[in-house]
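Q: What residues go here?
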């Protein structure tokens, strides 16, 4: 029996455009869900995994399969349905699973033979048995199981050529941010995989660099962190020589032993969701966690970096509290926090989230011709009606943010800082320039899609900020702070991305800060910073005093 497992592509995702930007070859990640599914599949099935991000094959030239399994994020759903239609036309049954099918089972069910919702461990073998009998049901519901039921992923099934392997050690997130699908999909309980299984699977990964895909690698409670430390000790003991990156929350900075163990176990970088520079923004997205304990972000970021770990910070733009000037504010906050890489994303109502329910009820979902419009749900394109910002405004804010953070003067400052503090100037330079390059690709897309001219009007009444405003935007009007024409920063070749120094566009830092995050392009960007570089901690560096300069948080 022949089974194809397919990860569909979406050409609007700039990070997988390998031809347009050579840096993106570091940013094509393995579709781990399909490798886990393959691990659950009995040996009588002959499995081929197709990752369309590596190139779309001519399916008609491939041997006819008995069954096709397709995965999809929301942004990949349209392509998933096209691939499904192709196979179904020739009589091959298609099963779809993953996050989008789970959040939109009725839509998927109209376009494939069977839909599997939720995690597949409890149900996949049953699906295969039904398929063999020609008796597939329309919908199968996967239930959440303990993580000892997660099999070893079949890392052998994908070709070499990926820069990173990937692995999962926990599922679920104890937090419940309003824009995020994770708790709906994997739940709030923090389920942990047996440590010996993690180490065993790490040994099967060919690549030296590994992405730990957990939504929160360390967790939030004492027992979560204790388990992470045990895992790190086991990884150190196994002495596998892997370098890895992971998503964590800012509380990682509060535990020196955790940081020491992580660095020793090969942690090269962490991705942290700061989400908003404003306390009101954090309350809006229900990420108050970030402002507990009078958090000083600058000190927290430095503590992590002192262990030779790069910090990527993610922010969301387009929150109801965000006003013109937010782009500049995010960039300045990220600079002040000393982030190595900034990933700013548009607020996007993903199906199944509380944000979706809210925006839908307020008629604020602008890109709403489904399934066609799902392709725009990449978080790098505006799809909703924002409170204080038209599409033209928010695109301008994103450009202003990226130009400001990735100005040559800022990049050089970061390189210089790392030279003195962590002695990794080359990696910082490469990482920052490559992000600048992808920003050029995104800008090209904005123009191709004519986004700065199409302006869905916000048509709802802004909610009152929950907290007193912390974030009045300072400095000159945006139009006057923007530097040379962006055309000077575009184009694939790095030499062509170096325009005149943008230092002239940097005005005074806004008074107050903010922060979000999910894995995404910034996480991918970390790769660049890890390649060929070893990390060094800097014991001599003195711990700076925690300053609670702001009652709620401090950047
Ligand atoms: C790693 C990761 C990435 C990586 C790698 C993605 C990849 N190729 O796998 C990168 C960095 C590239 C990435 C990018 C993006 N990501 Co991402 N990512 C994740 C993350 C953290 C883990 C995914 C993972 O590997 N899980 C582990 C595996 C084992 O689980 P799984 O994939 O869910 O598979 C299980 C089931 O779903 C099921 N299953 C899956 N597929 C199939 C297929 C069949 C046939 C069957 C039967 C079952 C089945 O079986 C598996 C075992 O139980 C998730 C969060 C999460 N917890 O899922 C977000 C997540 C998937 N990402 C998300 C988003 C939004 C994005 C981006 C669109 C935006 C961005 N900038 O971050 C981009 C778009 C990329 C693209 N190509 O379109 C959202 C998706 C929400 C949605 N509705 O689409 C998530 C859920 C995070 C969130 N905050 O909500 N991401
Ligand atoms: S955004 Fe991150 S911290 Fe918030 S619920 Fe999702 S995974 Fe958890």
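A:
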């Amino acid at each position: 029996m022949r089974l194809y497992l397919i990860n569909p592509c979406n050409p609007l995702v700039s990070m997988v455009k390998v031809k347009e930007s050579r840096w993106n070859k570091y940013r094509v990640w393995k579709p781990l869900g399909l490798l886990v599914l393959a691990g659950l599949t009995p040996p009588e099935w002959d499995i081929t995994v197709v990752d369309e991000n590596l190139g779309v094959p001519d399916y008609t030239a491939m041997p006819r399969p008995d069954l096709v399994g397709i995965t999809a994020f929301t942004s990949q759903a349209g392509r998933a349905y096209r691939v499904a239609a192709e196979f179904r036309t020739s009589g091959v049954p298609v099963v779809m699973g993953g996050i989008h099918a789970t959040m939109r089972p009725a839509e998927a069910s109209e376009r494939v033979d069977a839909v599997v919702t939720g995690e597949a461990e409890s149900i996949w073998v049953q699906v295969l048995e039904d398929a063999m009998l020609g008796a597939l049901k329309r919908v199968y519901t996967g239930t959440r199981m303990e993580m000892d039921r997660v099999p070893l992923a079949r890392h052998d099934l994908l070709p070499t050529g990926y820069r990173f392997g990937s692995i999962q050690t926990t599922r679920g997130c104890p937090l419940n941010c309003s824009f995020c699908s994770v708790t709906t999909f994997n739940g709030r309980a923090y389920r942990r995989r047996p440590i010996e299984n993690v180490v065993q699977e790490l040994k099967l990964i060919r690549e030296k660099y590994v992405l730990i895909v957990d939504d929160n690698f360390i967790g939030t409670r004492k027992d979560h962190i204790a388990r992470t430390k045990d895992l790190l000790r086991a990884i150190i003991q196994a002495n596998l020589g892997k370098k890895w990156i992971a998503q964590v929350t800012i509380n990682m900075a509060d535990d020196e032993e955790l940081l020491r163990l992580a660095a020793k176990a090969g942690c090269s970088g962490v991705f942290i969701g700061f989400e908003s520079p404003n306390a009101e923004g954090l309350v809006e997205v229900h990420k108050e966690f970030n402002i507990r304990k009078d958090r000083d972000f600058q000190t927290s970021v430095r503590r992590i970096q002192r262990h030779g770990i790069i910090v990527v910070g993610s922010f969301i733009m387009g929150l109801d509290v965000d006003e013109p000037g937010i782009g500049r504010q995010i960039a300045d906050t990220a600079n002040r926090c000393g982030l190595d890489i900034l990933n700013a994303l548009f607020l996007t109502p993903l199906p199944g989230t509380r944000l979706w329910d809210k925006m839908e009820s307020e008629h604020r979902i602008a890109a709403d011709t489904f399934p066609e419009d799902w392709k725009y749900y990449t978080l790098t394109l505006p799809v909703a009606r924002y409170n204080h910002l038209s599409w033209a405004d928010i695109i301008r804010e994103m450009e202003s943010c990226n130009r400001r953070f990735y100005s040559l003067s800022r990049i050089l400052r970061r390189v210089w800082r790392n030279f003195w503090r962590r002695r990794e100037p080359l990696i910082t330079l490469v990482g920052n320039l490559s992000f600048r390059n992808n920003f050029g690709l995104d800008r090209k897309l904005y123009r191709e899609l004519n986004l700065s001219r199409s302006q869905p009007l916000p048509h709802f009444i802004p909610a009152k900020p929950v907290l007193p405003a912390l974030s009045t935007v300072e400095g000159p009007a945006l139009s006057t702070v923007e530097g040379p024409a962006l055309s000077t920063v575009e184009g694939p070749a790095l030499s062509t991305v170096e325009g005149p120094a943008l230092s002239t566009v940097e005005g005074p830092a806004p008074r107050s800060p903010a922060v979000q995050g999910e894995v995404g392009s910034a996480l991918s960007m970390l790769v660049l910073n890890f390649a060929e570089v070893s990390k060094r901690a800097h014991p001599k560096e003195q711990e700076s005093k925690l300053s609670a300069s702001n009652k709620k948080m401090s950047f």
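A: Context that may help when evaluating the design: The pocket of iron/sulfur cluster (ligand 2) is lined by residues 173, 175-177, 180, 182-183, 215-216, 273, 518 (CB under 6 Å). Confidence is low (pLDDT under 50) at residues 458-555.
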